[in-house]
Amino acid sequence: MDDLEKAILISFDESGTVNSALKAQAVAFCQQIKESTSICTLCIERLCYSKLVQVQFWCLQCLQELLHHRYSSMSLEEKSFIRKSVFSIACLEGPDDNHSIGVLDGPAFIKNKLAQVLVSLIYFEYPLTWSSVFLDFLPHLNKGATVIDMFCRILNALDDEIISFDYPRNAEEVAVAGRIKDTMRQQCVAQIVRTWYDIISMYRNSDPELCASVLDSMRRYISWIDIGLIVNDAFIPLLFELLLVDVLPEQVRGGAAACLLAVVSKRMDPHSKLSLLQSLQINRVFCLVADNTDSEFVSKVSSLITGYATEVLDCYRRSTSEDTKGVSTELLDEVLPSVFYIMQNCEVDTQFSIVQFLSGYVAKMKSLSPLKQKEVIHVGQILEVIRTQICYDPVYRANLDAFDKIGREEEDRMTEFRKDLFVLLRSIGRVAPDVTQLFIKNSLAGAVASSSDRNVEEVEAALSLFYALGESISDEGIRTGSGLLKELVPMLLSTRFPCHSNRIVALVYLETITRYMKFVQENAQYVPVILTAFLDERGIHHPNVNVSRRASYLFMRVVKLLKAKLVPFIETILQGLQDTAAQFITVDCTLKEIPGSEDGSHIFEAIGLLIGMEDVPPEKQSDYLSSLLTPLCQQVETLMTNAKVQNTEESLGNIVTIQQIIMAINALSKGFSERMVTASRPGIGLMFRQTLDVFLQILVVFPKQELLRSKVTSYIHRMVDTLGTSVFPFLPKALEQLLAESEPKEMVGFLVLINQLICKFNTSVQDIVEEVYPAIVSRIFSILPRDSITSGPESNTEEIRELQELQRTLYTFLHVIATHDLSSVFISLKSRAYLDSMMQLLLYTSCNHADILVRKACVQIFIRLIKDWCTGSYGEDKVPGFRNFIIDGFAINCCLYSVLDKSFDLRDANTLMLFGEIILAQKVMYEKFGDDFLVHFVSKGLQSAHFPQDLAEEYRNKLQGNDTKALKSFYQSHIENLRLQQNGSLVFR
Q1: Angle (CA) 255 250 304, round 5°
Q2: CA-CA distance, 908 to 965, in Å (whole number)?
Q3: Concatenated DSSP letters for 942-989?
Q4: Alpha-carbon distance 860 to 905, whole Å?
Q5: Under a CB-based contact definition with an 8 Å cutoff, are residues 489 and 519 in contact?
Q6: Which of 711, 571, 693, 563 is nearest to 627 (CA)?
Q7: How far is CA 854 from CA 62, 256, 847, 913, in A?
Q8: Is 151 helix (H, G, I), strand (E, B) or coil?
């Protein structure tokens, strides 16, 4: 063993016993040898004489790298030497009589690497330099299994490395592959196919492994060689014989199945393909899938049958003649029972999409009306396939019920997996509604009666089918109970499944009865049944809190839909919800981690919707509401009193309870309209005002509790919508308390509340807005930087995001003020001190902000202020100096310089909208300021930006005209020209 061999062994060592420094030294030494000029000779010698597989692999790897990276710079002698030497090794020829070749006796990875080296040579040299490579190899195959195996590996490597489109190829590789295939078709494919036939015939019994290797190579090449070389009286009978003779090893039979799949998958016109498919008599193999369904052989046969069925369906789809369609239908009818069996019992090949195939078949049935008996049977089988596919595996039952990490992952996976299957179900529901509904009815009945070990999954699947079907049925169809729905929905409502305590069953049951609620709306006799389902242990009183809370949400939706039909049952409902409502308020319940969006407050929204109806007598309504609000408000008052003397832990419990009470009453109030509480039944409004008064005290007692303040703010929002103008007396105190302690995040909520007030009441809240505006601006200016907030990856912190959100909300706030006839707020006595700073901020933002929509809002604010504050060319303006600020600052900087900046992308839709507002602003400035604006803008703006004099005159004419579109088009065109001509002389802001 010389130094190189030692170094190779050390560099390949994975035992961990070799010193790392020594290993690095060995790797460096090997790399140095690779760079030597004699590396070709050295590698070939080692291949011929060394028995060490590490050395053999290293030498083959070197040769492959050499060909890939240095082929164009190699001498003709070097190329010839490598070609002859490697070919000799592959053909079992030694360099002389005294030494044998060890490479072909080595492990599979050595032989595969040798095949890759040969394929690298083929890539560069076939057919121009080495045109006879395949013909030269064929005579050597009579040396026996070793050389035949090597030939198969070369063909497989050629497919993997060059020909197959299963791997991404660049344009050069595609061109080389095409050249190789074209030459092989003309030169040697026929001889290779004949050789395959001879080898398979000879070795089918004596060497099944070799026979399987040949079949695998053959499978790869069928897609692009002349199909007549395979589809003939010799080869097809041989392949079926290999497939059907059960004494042959499975690897040979599976190889034959794979070759037949390649044959049926061959691309050709539908008429020729159909003739081919007919001639194969594939029905001979249908019985083979009934054997051991877990075996690899049955999986291969399954792939053959499903592939055949896909091709037959494709022929039907592409055919134009009725005769061809008729033949396709006969073949489909013949193969479909086996396909359905495979879908339900066998491992389906990943290349075969069950949904895609079945969707294609259902699309075929759409043209058949009415369906024949055979198609009706097929519909039933497809539905059974869908039902089988959507069933959860019982192994996950406990995880799904506990909804732990594994359960959540499995539910997410199944939700995604089911999407396409449910689309298919809905297609079938449209093609054969009666068959589909009968299947679901039988599935439900069968699931209830099934054994407990499958009961959960089968019930859940049947209910999920019924739920998904609802999307394909019109509202009218559900309301009238079309087809079997008039039996199915009552059956569903009255059924108590033994596995109803299971989470996934309970959830899908509730979702399904909610989906078909319009049937109950039309058939009021089922109202007591639906109420029982929601109020007992199947719904709101289910032991699983996830189910209980989801039931609360769904019940709220039911109440919204049924409304007046529930009035006779209000007492019963309130009694049934009493404990659940009380439980929501308790701390123990709220501290539990509940995955999902339902917080439980929907039960109060449902109660509010029930008792807030006009159909409820006023006295009763008042009693119901008082019985809910009075004890809750008293509880809040008691908790606030106790908070002053309690320790931190007790106080935390109080805070959580108060929070829950606010959420409960907030949800409750959604059931009451503004008209009712302010006009028809003012006593109800009084109760909500008293509640608001109590809740505002929370801001005083807990001034630092951000979550509580947020809940109170949310309740004020609610009361603005509910109480209307009768909320005004409470606003000064509320706004004062909310503004007192507000951080950036809370400030956003505060501004949103002010925006709501302005949008709802317009100028009626002018006094309130004038009062709070100075404090708002003062607080915001102390929080926000005067220029832009940091952007980019480093700004992705919670603090920066809060500042960005506050900034966006500020501009919305200013925009709302300006556009709701409240611009006088900006110039009131208390606000004057902030006017200059605010105008400068708006100007800077209109020119520079990264968010184009924010810039647009600022331009719109200026447009409105110009209209409100400037009377015309000769009148006296409301705000001294504002006219000059607009002409000198806004017009030049925003309307000209900002759009000349290359960052102003006129291809962007939002930027184009901003540009439109800038054009409108110029029109408004001209209307209000006349030549004062025009002369200044042309002389100080356009001409300093090198706008040609004649174009400046044209601008004047366009501005004075009434065609805003023409002005916009003119201005845009010349702005773009100026950008192209801009030579750096114009200094932007």
Answers
A1: 45
A2: 18
A3: ITTTT--HHHHHHHHHHHHSS-HHHHHHHHHHHHHHHHHH--S-S---
A4: 19
A5: yes
A6: 571
A7: 61, 68, 10, 12
A8: helix
Q: Which residues contact 202 (CB under 8 A, 6 or more apart)?
A: none
- Give the confidence band of 645 by pLDDT, cuts at 50, 70, 90: confident
pTM of the shown model: 0.79
Q: Which of 265-269, 774-778, 857-861, 955-959 has the highest mean pLDDT?
A: 857-861
**Count of alpha carbons within 13 angstroms of residue 840, beta-carbon side:** 9
3 state DSSP class of 882: helix
Rg (CA), the chain: 41
Task: Report how far residue 779's alpha carbon sits from residue 103's, in angstroms, rounded to the nearest whole number.
Answer: 82
Backbone φ and ψ for 265, nearest 5 degrees, come out as -90, -5
pLDDT tens profile 3-60: 888 999 999 988 878 888 999 999 999 999 988 888 999 999 999 888 899 999 999 9
**Structure tokens belonging to residue 850:** 């990264």
For 133, 531, 730, 813, 825, the CA distances from 768, given in Å and listed in that order, are 93, 47, 11, 14, 10
CA distance 82 to 72: 14
Rounded Cα distance, 688 and 665, in Å: 9
pLDDT digits (tens, 9 = 90+) for 844-874: 999 999 999 999 999 999 999 999 999 866 6
Task: HSE, CB side, 13 Å, CA atoms: give it for residue 187.
Answer: 16
- Is pLDDT at 597 greater than 60 in this prediction? no
Contact 53, 107 (CB under 8 A): yes
Residues 6 or more apart from 561 whose CB is under 8 A from it? Answer: 517, 518, 521
Token pair of 688 as six digits:
């909500």
Could you give the CA distance from residue 899 to residue 855 in angstroms, rounded to a whole number?
12
What is the rounded distance in angstroms from the CA atom of residue 327 to the CA atom of residue 404? 53
For 838-854, the DSSP string reads HHHHHHHHHHH-S-HHH
Nearest to 512 by CA among 483, 489, 486, 544: 489
| Complete DSSP assignment for 485-526 | HHHHHHHHHH---TTTTSHHHHHHHHHHHHHTHHHHHH-GGG
Tokens representing 918 are 């800038």
Question: What residue type is assigned to position 93 of the chain?
Answer: E
| Contact status, residue 711 vs residue 653, Cβ threshold 8 Å | no
Q: Name the one residue in this structure whose structure tokens are 């959420």.
A: 663
CA–CA gap between residue 689 and residue 726 (Å, rounded): 8
Q: Which of 178, 175, 278 shows the shortest CA–CA distance to 224?
A: 178
Q: Which of 956, 880, 825, 830 is nearest to 871 (CA)?
A: 880
Q: How many helices (H) and strands (E) does the chain have?
A: 48, 0
Indicate whether 592 pLDDT > 60: no
Q: Residue 450 — φ and ψ, nearest 5°? A: -75, 165
pLDDT of residue 259: 97
